[in-house]
Amino acid sequence: MNAASADSGVRIEGVSKHYDAEGGVVRALEGVSFDVDNGEFVCIVGPSGCGKTTLFRIIAGLDDATDGAVYLGGDRVEGPTPDMGVVFQEYHLFPWRTVRGNVAFGLEKSGVPEAERRTRVEELVELVGLEGFEDSYPKALSGGMKQRVAIARALAADPALLLMDEPFGAVDAQTREMLQTELLEIREETGKTVLFVTHDVEEAVKLADRIVVMDKEPGRICETVPVDLPRPRSRSDAEFGGYYERVLDLIRSA
């Protein structure tokens, strides 16, 4: 287990991002601050152009903030780290590698011994429900199966945080619902801290312990909504609908 796994909480502290552009400075993010507790599932939503993806990239260590900082397990994030498993909307699988090879990639780069690597890959393939497809190449997999491979690969190094940016946005509605359910099962089994960016309010209400709603121009936190509903959650429930409307109203007024 990684050192940061003992305290996998995330702290986003006063994060701003400004760009120089023709006509002046673009303030993509301004003073964004919130915490994600150890083991918590938090979704970030907001209107188009509110800076969700910019914030995601800064948290992942893929971009620098103009001001402020991100902390994972008490340590400042200064670049990509194996303590963060990152999943994008696009699968980013290696087409020349099998399911097993894609899941094992990070472990190989980290020098994990072959026997240990093989055991870990088998565990993850089982966790994401891809037994029997270990030797399949990405071209032979459905969109949902490819995203399962991406999730398994992100979990391979036992990261403190699973950071996801619109991970189910490229699949059909039925597959999306199935992947949502499977993600909650994986999170329940692994106890991972999850920070999940989505434009889909219904998805956020189904998944999150808390929903962070962003405003735009500049991008900042509008409100944080705790979702006090037992799981599994059904959109047909009146309480589910109440949360959905509340978050949607916040986005519309942003």
UniProtKB/TrEMBL annotation:
Its localization reads: Cell membrane
Please state the Enzyme Commission number of this protein.
7.3.2.6
Q: What class of enzyme is it?
A: translocase
Q: Which SUPFAM superfamilies match?
A: P-loop containing nucleoside triphosphate hydrolases (SSF52540)
Q: Which reaction does it catalyse?
A: tungstate(in) + ATP + H2O = tungstate(out) + ADP + phosphate + H(+)
Q: Quick one: a GO cellular component term?
A: plasma membrane
Q: Which GO terms describe its molecular function?
A: ABC-type tungstate transporter activity; ATP binding; ATP hydrolysis activity
Keyword set includes Nucleotide-binding: yes
Could you tell me the keywords of this UniProt record? ATP-binding, Molybdenum, Nucleotide-binding, Transport
All residue ranges annotated as the ABC transporter domain in the record:
10-241
Does this entry carry the keyword Transport? yes
Question: Coiled coil: which residue ranges?
Answer: none
The record's listing under PANTHER family reads:
ALIPHATIC SULFONATES IMPORT ATP-BINDING PROTEIN SSUB, TAURINE IMPORT ATP-BINDING PROTEIN-RELATED
Give the protein family: Belongs to the ABC transporter superfamily. Sulfate/tungstate importer (TC 3.A.1.6) family.
Entry protein name? Molybdate/tungstate import ATP-binding protein WtpC
Lineage of source species: Archaea, Methanobacteriati, Methanobacteriota, Stenosarchaea group, Halobacteria
